[in-house]
Design goal:
alpha+beta, 13 helices, 4-stranded antiparallel β-sheet, Immunoglobulin-like, 11-stranded mixed β-sheet, about 650 residues, disordered N terminus
């Protein structure tokens, strides 16, 4: 990252005589911070230069700055702080509105909606003594980016990211990344600062609105940038993106606590109870005492062994905040990262998450299914739009790739259950008439690492949805995955009716990724073919590409199917007509992860498996794979001998 060579614009306005001094000081400090980053010096967190969420005197929320994009065609709501009882006048584009600061210093002004405008505008916020000037503001569409690290993953860390960076000269795309904050209390604002990333070993600039440039964009969410770029290039509308994603987070932390407590679900109630107990039991002093004791034991052991303690290890003295402010405490990230944006007028949001909800077996995936629709509704409520466009990117891949040889073994993973919950949330809303809900799969953008760095296609897929449904390109751009509209179980096979034609990736091979099972719940890879409806004049078979026929010689009487059922799944079915829109991870059964196949355990289990139970399950699934491979080998041998 190159050193910043310009002062930043302050979001608060101190007395006039101090403005020049503070601006120069800010420039010098931030330049030094960036130089330290460029030289890979790990600045201590306490040395990070920070402009506060709420300043003294008249100030405006840091959601409003020079270089920002204001949402077109919606009333413009602006808020901030001033002395109690003070009148504040906000003006932009010939419109003016007066607000009065309440006893808690807050004020809010609502100005008329403005049409799209690429000509920079100036907003002023003033009281009797001070005028704040925000310039270079565009009127366009604002999109919020949500989720965890695979949404947060920056452009300079992905495959072909540098190609995107060097060509990222889009002055009408504007970028804001929200700093990570903690705690269950809703935050009224966010600071502007350089935030340390232990994962990448550097500081990232957070809280500033900036024009999109190669220097700035390298730190932005890769998916978010590609999404914004495609929309802007096609529509020529100014685009603002607000990245509010955060690595290592769960769906429940992005949902308001008060919403979670109204969900009538045993799994959600158990989750909340467990967190309430952890928070109540936390004793910061006892934690420090335990860490001090452990450190002293280590010192004693090293002395006996004649070894020196590492120079960077000292006796702990800090009281850790613990579970009360854990980033995954239910409602935490919503309160601290979405809360400061509540009331902002935006176009929509896209969300990519799921990894950190993959550790609690079936009960955890059921909890996800109950929470995720409420999270979507809560975000729509936060931005005052019950029909707000919301695009879902399904869980990414991780680990060993599923093949025809290890197919059954790879099914024993919570990942596809999370993808199913994400897809079913989309499907429920879509079938109920919600035409502002979007979805795309990412399971085919695979890498072994749980941060697969193929982010450009993911961003472009969700951009298709936005362009088709929000920007008038529905006739030229397709985005929706094929949807199952009917299922018939017949003698020895299952027929699936789709709402549109679908076929295998065009590599000359068969459709892969389906499995079928009978009542014994023993899934095996299925042959999937289009329904043959007759022959043409040349005697060639005619097929209906909206109907799939599933069968397996290992399953005499199939009753259910699954598709792309693995963490890094086998699956190549996609919408036809020159697209790469994957058929979504889905199933027809409701069997739990722990109880497929039948007979592994003495009785059906409802709790997460212990190590021995997990080993027994994997052994049973491996045996299914071995049995199938042996059967196929014997069948082939018999065919060869017959010939």
């Amino acid at each position: 990252m190159k050193p910043v060579t310009r002062p930043i614009r302050l979001s608060f306005c101190p007395p006039t005589s101090q403005v020049f001094t503070i601006t120069i000081l800010a420039f010098l400090l931030l330049a030094n911070a960036d130089i330290a980053v460029a030289q890979n010096q790990q600045m201590p967190r306490e040395d990070v230069v920070e402009f506060p969420a709420i300043g003294e005197g008249l100030c405006v929320s840091n959601a409003f700055q020079s270089n920002m994009v204001l949402q077109r065609d919606k009333p413009i709501v602006v808020w901030g702080w001033a002395d109690a009882g003070e009148e504040v006048v906000v003006s932009i584009a010939g419109h003016e509105q007066t607000a009065t600061a309440a006893d808690d210093r807050t004020w809010k002004a609502t100005l008329p909606a403005l049409a799209v405008n690429s000509t920079p505008q100036t907003m002023t916020v003033k009281n009797a003594r001070t005028t704040l000037t925000l310039d270079n503001i565009l009127i366009g569409d604002v999109w919020v980016l949500g989720g965890q690290s695979n949404m947060e993953f920056p452009l300079d860390r992905i495959e072909n990211g540098e190609l995107e960076i060097v060509s990222a000269n889009f002055p009408n795309i504007r970028i804001l990344t929200v700093p990570a904050m903690n705690g269950p209390e809703k935050k009224p604002g966010f600071a502007r600062l350089h935030e340390w990333s232990g994962w990448f070993g550097q500081h990232y600039r957070k809280g500033d609105w900036d024009e999109c440039s190669p220097e700035i964009v390298r730190e932005l969410s890769a998916i978010g940038y590609v999404f914004a770029r495609r929309i802007h290039m096609a529509s020529q509308v100014p685009i603002g993106v607000i990245d509010a994603s955060r690595g290592g987070t769960t769906v429940e932390t992005w949902t308001p606590d008060e919403v979670l407590r109204k969900i009538d679900s045993p799994q959600v109630k158990t989750l909340l109870q467990e967190w309430d107990e952890k928070v109540a039991a936390w004793d910061a002093q006892a934690d420090l005492d335990q860490r001090v004791a452990s450190y002293r034991q280590k010192v004693e052991r090293f002395q006996k062994e004649g070894r020196e303690m590492p120079a960077n290890e000292t006796e702990p003295t800090d009281l850790r905040p613990g579970p009360p402010v854990d980033q995954n405490r239910p409602g935490n990230c919503y309160a601290s990262m979405i809360g400061p944006l509540e009331g902002l007028q935006i176009k929509g949001a896209i969300f990519h998450q799921g990894y950190n909800n993959c550790f609690n077996g079936t009960e955890g995936t059921i909890m996800y299914r109950h929470v995720f629709p409420q999270m979507v509704a809560s975000w729509r409520a936060a931005f005052n739009d019950p029909n707000m466009p919301f695009g879902i990117l399904s869980l990414c891949t991780e680990g060993t790739v599923q093949t025809l040889d290890n197919y059954c073994e790879m099914m024993a993973n919570p990942g596809p259950f999370i993808r199913e919950a994400q897809y079913q949330t989309f499907l429920d809303l879509y079938k109920a008439g919600d035409r502002n809900i979007g979805f795309t799969s990412t399971y085919d953008l695979r890498r072994r690492w749980y941060h697969p760095q193929l982010k450009i296609p993911a961003g472009e897929r969700i951009a298709r949805w936005a362009l088709a449904t929000q920007y008038g390109f529905e006739r030229s751009i397709r985005w929706k995955p094929p949807i199952v509209v009917g299922m018939n179980v017949k003698d020895g096979h299952i027929e699936l009716q789709l709402d549109e034609p679908a076929g295998a990736v065009d590599d000359g091979g068969p459709i892969l990724g389906f499995a079928v099972a009978g009542e014994d719940r023993k899934f095996h890879p299925a042959t999937a073919e289009h329904l043959v409806t007759g022959k043409n004049d040349r005697g060639q078979p005619q097929t209906d590409k909206k109907v799939l026929v599933l069968s397996s010689p290992m399953v005499a009487s199939p009753v259910h199917y699954r598709y792309a059922w693995g963490r890094s799944p086998l699956g190549n079915l996609q919408a036809e007509r020159m697209t790469d829109i994957p058929f979504a991870t889905q199933r027809s059964d409701d069997w739990s992860l722990e109880n497929v196949p039948l007979g592994v355990h003495e009785e059906e289990l409802t709790e997460k498996l212990d190590r021995q139970q997990q080993r027994n399950l994997i052994d049973a699934l491996r045996k299914q794979d071995v049995d199938r491979i042996l059967f196929e080998a014997e069948t082939l041998e018999a065919a060869v001998n017959k010939n």
